[in-house]
Design brief:
Elements: H1 8-16, H2 22-42, H3 46-62, H4 69-76, H5 79-87, E1 110-111, E2 125-134, E3 144-148, E4 169-173, E5 179-185, E6 190-191, H6 197-203, E7 210-211, E8 214-219, E9 227-233, E10 252-253, E11 256-258, E12 261-262, E13 268-269, E14 273-277, E15 280-282
Parallel strand pairs: 1-4, 2-14, 2-15, 9-10
Antiparallel strand pairs: 2-5, 3-4, 3-8, 6-7, 8-9, 11-14, 12-13
The protein binds benzoic acid (BEZ) and fe (iii) ion (FE).
Length: 285
Amino acid sequence: MYVDEDNITDLAARRWATAHSPRQAELMTAMIRHLHAFAREVQLTEDEWMAAIQWLTEAGRISDDKRQELILTSDVLGLSMLVVQLNNRFSAQATPATVLGPFHIDGSPAAPYGFDMSDGIPGTPLFVTGKVVDVDGKPVPAAVLDAWQADADGAYEAQIPEIDEARLRAKYQAREDGTYCIRTIAPRGYAIPMDGPVGELIGATDISYFRPAHVHFLIDEPGYRKLITHLFQEGSEYLDSDVVFGTKDALIVRFTEKPAGTAPDGSHIEQPYLHAEYDFVLQPG
Ligand code: BEZ
Ligand code: FE
């Protein structure tokens, strides 16, 4: 049978239903039905389709091992956060997940309790302390917290060319009782990268392209579900308009101002600092 406007969707879906993996067949046929429905609904023109192809080509071209324009695309469309929600419908006491974002770098260096991952980068000192526990409140001994963040200008290491050592990222080892202590600098709200195809699209709208101040965490312990999340600073600008839809009430934490003196890890600090306290609660899995 040859194609016409009415039978093309069924023909294409049936062809892709032959995928050897049943799950792939399901994904491909559903994607075809939704894409075709979209084209019909908006009566997609050939020029619009070609502009979309060129946009995707540019998003791929600009991406590399440090820049990920396609993750950013998924983030600003709300798709990343939808996938997070669909895959993390668990107990209400557990720490909620949020987007990974495009700036995580694998293989951060191991860091002991109280290690300063800011290493002299200018900013207000910030200590983040607490425990890693399970849903019953029992400590997860020696959990590893992979932490990363932007500097006070909103730049991540992945955005700074020719950097050859870890910058504002480290894998913190909690102690046997689950307690951890991170020393860093206070993050600031920042603009997502606007110099590529995502920025071009957003620039043609009224969308606010900022994220509220946050620190990222990834905790992947055997016997528990992998947790990818952030802690957001209470009162930070953009909490209500996060361009990637990542903010959650349970992840907003007070950054309390403290005077110079004894820091949370027992060391001496000569300037005022901020202190955030948060217990990460992991789901069994
Ligand atoms: C981030 O927080 O690192 C981020 C997440 C999504 C898009 C852009 C940045
Ligand atoms: Fe971030």
